[in-house]
């Protein structure tokens, strides 16, 4: 659901080149030559977070038409300046690794609770376990292959503009630029193949 609100943020702020998130925690990447709000971090944060929050409020009914909000949602934010694209990609890779770790743990935890263990027992059971052990738990005790779980939960959501193209008029290329559509993807962004397939994202043009 939050990915839909993130799409709205990218449509509103053209200087945002890419966003990655899990649940309601999203990281927004601005073009490195952006002059949005004269690069004042406090203004950028307040504008993006407030727009995300207001969109959340306005679109809530689209997803939960029969469930009213019990209290107004609020989100926080912070700005970090990464000096190179490599460091930025390392950060995004860490976010996706964290997505996998949390999803795997939570899947195991709630399956143990559903099987009859208390929350404390489930926590104790999982304490110190590694990826392989969690995968074996899911497979052997619950018949779940981790890699078969929905990719959105294992990979998180990447939001970015599709590369601009040109329009055709009467079968001929007009040369007129098409406004880039914002899409949501659930790819492995740790692998360089993703960035090679979408080089325009980090071109920061």
UniProtKB/TrEMBL annotation:
Its EC number is 2.7.7.79. Gene3D superfamilies: 3.30.70.3000. The keyword tRNA processing applies. One of its GO terms (cellular component) is nucleoplasm. Keywords: GTP-binding, Magnesium, Metal-binding, Nucleotide-binding, Nucleotidyltransferase, Nucleus, Transferase, tRNA processing. It comes from the Eukaryota. It is found in: Nucleus, Nucleoplasm. Pfam families: Thg1, Thg1C. The keyword GTP-binding applies. InterPro entries: Thg1_C_dom (IPR025845), tRNAHis_GuaTrfase_cat (IPR024956), tRNAHis_GuaTrfase_Thg1 (IPR007537), tRNAHis_GuaTrfase_Thg1_sf (IPR038469). Residues 6-83 form the tRNAHis guanylyltransferase catalytic domain. It is an enzyme of class 2 (transferase). Residues 88-172 form the Thg1 C-terminal domain. One of its GO terms (molecular function) is magnesium ion binding. One of its GO terms (biological process) is tRNA modification. Its main location: nucleus. It catalyses: a 5'-end ribonucleotide-tRNA(His) + GTP + ATP + H2O = a 5'-end phospho-guanosine-ribonucleotide-tRNA(His) + AMP + 2 diphosphate + H(+). Its cofactor is Mg(2+). Belongs to the tRNA(His) guanylyltransferase family. Adds a GMP to the 5'-end of tRNA(His) after transcription and RNase P cleavage. This is tRNA(His) guanylyltransferase. It comes from Arabidopsis thaliana (Mouse-ear cress).
